[in-house]
Amino acid sequence: MTEPVYLDHNATAPLRDAARDAALEAMAATGNASSVHAAGRRARALIEDARARVGELAGVAPRNVVFTSGGTEANALALLGCGCPRLLVSGIEHPSVLAVRADAQVIPVDGDGVLDLAALEAMLAAEDTPALVSVMAANNETGVIQPLAEVVRLAHAHSALVHCDAVQGAGRMALDDLGADLMTLSGHKLGGLQGAGALALAAGRDIAAVQRGGGQELGRRAGTEPLPAIVSFGAAATQAQGDDMDTIAGLRDGLQQAMLAAVPGARVMGAAAPRLANTLAIAHPRLEAETLVMAFDLEGIALSAGSACSSGKVGPSHVLEAMGEGALARNTIRISLGAGTTGADTARCAEVWQALDVRLGVGRNAA
User: Could you tell me which residues come within 8 angstroms of residue 287 by beta carbon, excluding any fewer than 6 positions away?
Assistant: First the structure.
């Protein structure tokens, strides 16, 4: 029987050994981190070690890391707790950004999914109301990397703050020089347990709590910290910084070349823009993504048709629509690699892609 192939790391990464070991250690450490007795102090020490590790990944001081339940909550905390009455978001943001505030103004992107900097500057200049600009580091569907340094420069020139959803970029690109005022991270995208995320604050920045209660996280996010998830997040954050992205990029590029050669008319989304080394969004000229995802699954290959948070929803990707895509928006699948991906995995994916094209009666070799 053929071994299953997992190519959906952007949805969730497989649990890393170091993260599993750290979580098991935390599970054995009875105690609430807010308690002052020895067991509580032990739990607190584990959380603070994880906080330092996540801070190192994000390029901020440990005390500027606010742990949350995940990336969705961290995004909401940034957008609702920043105190800015005006919000500008790119049209390709994750739904957890786009759905937070109905009054958000949408910044357009070009055909490759790159933010339109001229449009952003014009929007910032149009009003002097204090604003927050929310632009992701790299898109979760296409892998396209955004010009964050320029976004920060323009925003700060207009006294606006910048929030960066770096959930997909973390561990796959450098984050410490982006210059964002607020940055969102998620543990399970790095290979930690699900259930822990973080909002990283630049020096001198703070955030108003949205979830209030016991005053945890220096009063910025109430609720008992999920010790195993946070500790595994810290371990994954450290290990992810050692991933060989050059090797992953080589596997992705080889897979892309093979898939384009196998199916004439196939097209890579965001091909002309800088992309994360692990991500490939490719459209079949005739087959819809839903059909492809199910067919690949029957062959033991896990991949997706966009954001995992949109699973079960039939419809074109809002990311591809923002890029101006028409019918191909419904035909695009997302393949995302990780540290454990092998050449055999990508070769198998390319082989199945070609076989499906032929078997479903639309390929160049079809009878």
Answer: 331, 356, 357, 360, 362
Q: What tens digit of pLDDT does each residue of 183-228 get?
A: 999 999 999 999 999 999 999 999 999 988 888 998 999 999 999 9
- Give the model confidence (pLDDT) of 19-63 as tens digits: 999 999 999 988 899 999 999 999 999 999 999 999 999 999 999
For tokens 């062959």, the residue is 299
Sketch out the chain's domains with CATH numbers: 5-13+244-359 (3.90.1150.10), 17-240 (3.40.640.10)
Which residue is catalytic, options 82, 84, 164, 309? Answer: 309
Q: Please state the pTM of the whole predicted model.
A: 0.94
DSSP states of 251-281 as a string? Answer: HHHHHHHHHHHHSTT-EETTTTS-B-TTEEE
- Give the span between the Cα atoms of 367 and 363, in whole angstroms: 9
Q: Within 13 Å and on the Cβ side, how many CA atoms surround 187? A: 36
**Per-residue b or e along 180-204, where b marks 16 or more CB atoms closer than 10 Å to that residue's CB:** bbbbbbbbbbbbbbbbbbbbbbbee
**Do 267 and 246 meet the contact criterion of CB atoms below 8 Å apart?**
no
- Find residue 105's DSSP bridge partners: 88
Mean pLDDT, rounded, of the chain: 94
Structure token pair of residue 367: 């009878």
pLDDT in tens, 319-366: 999 999 988 999 999 999 999 999 999 999 999 999 999 988 554 544
Residue reference for tokens 């958000």 = 104
Euclidean distance between the first and the last CA atom of the chain, given in angstroms as a whole number? 29
309 is catalytic: yes
The answer to whether the CB of 99 falls within 8 A of the CB of 79 is no
